């Protein structure tokens, strides 16, 4: 008898092989090879598709004739979350919110769901991780109770779709997409094939009914969203919820947004009564004493459209080892190493034999090059033991040649600094690093 042959196809990219392998030879993904019949077509196989006659409302129309009345965003009554979404939730939009375990994703979305329900809209909150009793206890603690907020604890996709038909919600929250599974698809919940099927069905329901959907996504140990990369392409908005467990400050950052700007950030504070908005977080990133202290400098960083005041602190001590230590917190370590080299070569500061510690205040992370000048001034202030003026702020990118380069949003940075009482600034108008240090430290 003839033996039936089979192929192994990658569920991520469609790569095929005659033998099973643990890692895809094309996309390098692990555990994605599934067995199929030899005659079955792979994901990348070509197949002739016949054209279908287009009639009625499906016909293409000029862009100037398209109406946008049904896609006007409505507020979630959480201003910081609306800021990240680009003004609110658009009907039919699918939002993916990811974050580390315990950072507060469920607490934030329960607050969003409750505020939306209190505004008169019907909200369905589906959880595959908690029972409805556990959600009710958390809602009582955070005052997130409303008759228009419906709770369901489900892990089966068919049952979730049934709940949607029964409730007919104006907003659907699924916590989380990795816990929902479709019985028709092989594999446990959280597998790439399951996540794709669940996401595809929820996106279809969202588009057909103009119902916005918010999905919670787990992250891997590397901080990436768990599951297939296609999930991020399918949804309309991707947000990342970040924060340190040791601090109460939380940030929601927009990574992708089809309806607004990306890289927008919203600030929250985790309290015993739930999560609270922080509309003006600049004061949280400052640690000002009455007497000036050496090794500190204030900068202005821009997150999306928001200008934030942040303080950089530096400490230098004589090294007791042949290899001096370089310890950073909240800033890029490789960027600090580069600035130390520029300070020694272009400004004449001897830092090669010193242990250097650089940190930010309040847990804020400075990733843009505009913080270079403030870091350099803080290190120079610590080396020379000369404090800078209380009303001085610095921002600008430093090149390897010691030049101060222009940065974006100069006006927004200056306005934010002036609003908080900083009357002096060392910025891109200064020619080079030596001149900036002389101006800041009165060399």
TrEMBL record:
<dbReference type="Pfam" id="PF13481">
    <property type="entry name" value="AAA_25"/>
</dbReference>
<protein>
    <recommendedName>
        <fullName>DNA repair protein RadA</fullName>
    </recommendedName>
</protein>
<keyword id="KW-0862">Zinc</keyword>
<feature type="short sequence motif" description="RadA KNRFG motif">
    <location>
        <begin position="256"/>
        <end position="260"/>
    </location>
</feature>
<keyword id="KW-0547">Nucleotide-binding</keyword>
<keyword id="KW-0378">Hydrolase</keyword>
<dbReference type="InterPro" id="IPR020588">
    <property type="entry name" value="RecA_ATP-bd"/>
</dbReference>
<dbReference type="InterPro" id="IPR041166">
    <property type="entry name" value="Rubredoxin_2"/>
</dbReference>
<comment type="function">
    <text>Plays a role in repairing double-strand DNA breaks, probably involving stabilizing or processing branched DNA or blocked replication forks.</text>
</comment>
<keyword id="KW-0067">ATP-binding</keyword>
<dbReference type="GO" id="GO:0140664">
    <property type="term" value="F:ATP-dependent DNA damage sensor activity"/>
</dbReference>
<dbReference type="GO" id="GO:0016787">
    <property type="term" value="F:hydrolase activity"/>
</dbReference>
<dbReference type="GO" id="GO:0005829">
    <property type="term" value="C:cytosol"/>
</dbReference>
<dbReference type="Pfam" id="PF18073">
    <property type="entry name" value="Zn_ribbon_LapB"/>
</dbReference>
<dbReference type="Pfam" id="PF13541">
    <property type="entry name" value="ChlI"/>
</dbReference>
<comment type="similarity">
    <text>Belongs to the RecA family. RadA subfamily.</text>
</comment>
<dbReference type="InterPro" id="IPR027417">
    <property type="entry name" value="P-loop_NTPase"/>
</dbReference>
<feature type="region of interest" description="Lon-protease-like">
    <location>
        <begin position="355"/>
        <end position="443"/>
    </location>
</feature>
<feature type="domain" description="RecA family profile 1">
    <location>
        <begin position="70"/>
        <end position="219"/>
    </location>
</feature>
<dbReference type="GO" id="GO:0003684">
    <property type="term" value="F:damaged DNA binding"/>
</dbReference>
<dbReference type="InterPro" id="IPR003593">
    <property type="entry name" value="AAA+_ATPase"/>
</dbReference>
<comment type="function">
    <text>DNA-dependent ATPase involved in processing of recombination intermediates, plays a role in repairing DNA breaks. Stimulates the branch migration of RecA-mediated strand transfer reactions, allowing the 3' invading strand to extend heteroduplex DNA faster. Binds ssDNA in the presence of ADP but not other nucleotides, has ATPase activity that is stimulated by ssDNA and various branched DNA structures, but inhibited by SSB. Does not have RecA's homology-searching function.</text>
</comment>
<keyword id="KW-0346">Stress response</keyword>
<keyword id="KW-0234">DNA repair</keyword>
<feature type="binding site">
    <location>
        <begin position="99"/>
        <end position="106"/>
    </location>
    <ligand>
        <name>ATP</name>
    </ligand>
</feature>
<dbReference type="InterPro" id="IPR014721">
    <property type="entry name" value="Ribsml_uS5_D2-typ_fold_subgr"/>
</dbReference>
<dbReference type="GO" id="GO:0005524">
    <property type="term" value="F:ATP binding"/>
</dbReference>
<dbReference type="InterPro" id="IPR020568">
    <property type="entry name" value="Ribosomal_Su5_D2-typ_SF"/>
</dbReference>
<keyword id="KW-0238">DNA-binding</keyword>
<dbReference type="GO" id="GO:0008270">
    <property type="term" value="F:zinc ion binding"/>
</dbReference>
<keyword id="KW-0227">DNA damage</keyword>
<dbReference type="GO" id="GO:0000725">
    <property type="term" value="P:recombinational repair"/>
</dbReference>
<dbReference type="InterPro" id="IPR004504">
    <property type="entry name" value="DNA_repair_RadA"/>
</dbReference>
<keyword id="KW-0479">Metal-binding</keyword>
<keyword id="KW-0863">Zinc-finger</keyword>
């Amino acid at each position: 008898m003839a033996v039936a042959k089979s192929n192994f196809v990658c569920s991520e990219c469609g790569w095929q092989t005659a033998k099973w392998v643990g890692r895809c030879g094309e996309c390098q993904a692990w555990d994605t090879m599934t067995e199929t019949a030899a005659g079955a077509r792979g994901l990348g196989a070509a197949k002739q598709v016949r054209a279908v006659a287009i009639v009625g409302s499906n016909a293409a129309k000029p862009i100037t004739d398209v109406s946008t009345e049904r896609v006007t965003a409505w507020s979630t009554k959480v201003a910081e979350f609306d800021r990240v979404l680009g003004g609110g939730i658009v009907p039919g939009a699918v939002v993916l919110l990811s974050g580390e375990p315990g950072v507060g994703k469920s607490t934030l979305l329960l607050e969003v769901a409750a505020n939306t329900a209190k505004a008169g809209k019907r909200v369905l909150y589906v959880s595959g991780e908690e029972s409805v009793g556990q959600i009710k206890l958390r809602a009582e603690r955070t005052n997130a109770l409303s008759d228009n907020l419906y709770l369901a604890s489900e892990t089966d996709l068919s049952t979730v779709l049934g709940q949607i038909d029964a409730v007919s919600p104006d907003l659907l929250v699924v916590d989380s997409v990795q816990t929902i599974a479709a019985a028709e698809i092989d594999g446990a919940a959280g597998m790439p094939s399951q996540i794709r099927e669940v996401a595809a069905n929820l996106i279809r329901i969202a588009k057909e009914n103009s119902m916005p959907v918010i999905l919670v996504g787990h992250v891997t140990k590397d901080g990436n969203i768990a599951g297939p990369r296609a999930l991020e392409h399918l949804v309309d908005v991707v947000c990342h919820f970040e924060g340190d467990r040791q601090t109460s400050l939380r940030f929601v950052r927009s990574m992708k947004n089809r309806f607004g700007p990306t890289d927008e950030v919203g600030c929250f504070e985790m309290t015993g009564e739930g999560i609270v908005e922080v509309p003006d977080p600049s004061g949280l990133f400052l640690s000002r004493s009455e007497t000036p202290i050496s090794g500190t400098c204030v900068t202005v960083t821009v997150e999306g459209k928001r200008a934030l005041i942040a303080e950089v602190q530096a400490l230098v001590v004589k090294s007791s080892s042949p290899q001096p230590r370089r310890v950073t917190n909240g800033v890029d370590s490789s960027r600090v190493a580069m600035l130390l080299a520029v300070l020694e070569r272009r400004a004449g500061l001897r830092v090669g034999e010193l242990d250097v510690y650089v940190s930010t205040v309040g847990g804020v992370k400075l990733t843009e090059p505009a913080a270079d000048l403030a870091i350099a001034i803080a290190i120079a202030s610590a080396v020379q033991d000369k404090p800078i003026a209380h009303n001085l702020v610095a921002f600008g990118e430093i090149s390897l040649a010691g030049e101060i380069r222009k940065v974006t949003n100069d006006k927004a940075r200056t306005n934010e600094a002036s609003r908080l009482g900083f009357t002096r600034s060392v910025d891109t108008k200064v020619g080079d690093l030596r001149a900036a240090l002389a101006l800041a430290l009165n060399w």
